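>> Question from a student workshop board

For tomorrow's exercise we were told to take the sequence and the ligand below, predict the bound structure, and bring the output to class. My setup keeps failing. Could a helper post the expected result so I can at least see what it should look like? The ligand is zinc ion.
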Amino acid sequence: MSSVFEAVKAAVPMRAAAERFGLEVNYAGMVRCPFHEDHTPSMKLYDDHFYCFGCGRHGDVVDLTAELFCIPPYDAACKLADDFGVGDSAAVVRQPAREELKIFREDQLRCQRVLSEYLRLLTGWKEWYEPTDPDAEPDDRYVEACQMIETIDYLTDLLIVGTLEQRVRAVDLLLADGKIDQLEERLRRLRDAAEKETA
Ligand SMILES: [Zn+2]
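>> Workshop helper replied:
Here is what the output should look like for this input. Compare the format with yours to find the bug.
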């Protein structure tokens, strides 16, 4: 399988990237390190990686690009692909990006669906189980609603109107440790129980 990472690493030599991005490469394949105050070239460019003898920075051509332009690795790989025309003849390189985006959209929609259902439930609980006797122990469902509504409301909004980066982070957070799976399962059980009660 060919990802944009593998493609640019295979196609773009370290030296070519460094020169394109304005670093002056000397006869020994050394450049002045862009990551520390470097008066004499102390960063060595190898075929497939760089290493700075001054500050210890090291990495491959994607890392160099990401750090030079302060962009995430995936964006750096795409920038290299664009700048060096990698994958123009082979559409296969772009395939994983579309594929990843499709998977992300599906995850995002699933998180939206589960959170909206949970939010509706919490809103109902807050209304139905509001304590009538101030001295009595409040119902667990009322307590949960009070604790969670604001957070769930915020996350639901974020998934709809957030920037791509915010949405990616929110989806990652929700999918971590099976959080969404557990919530989905719990909502399903609550739905089943409610149906049985009304039947
Ligand atoms: Zn350095």
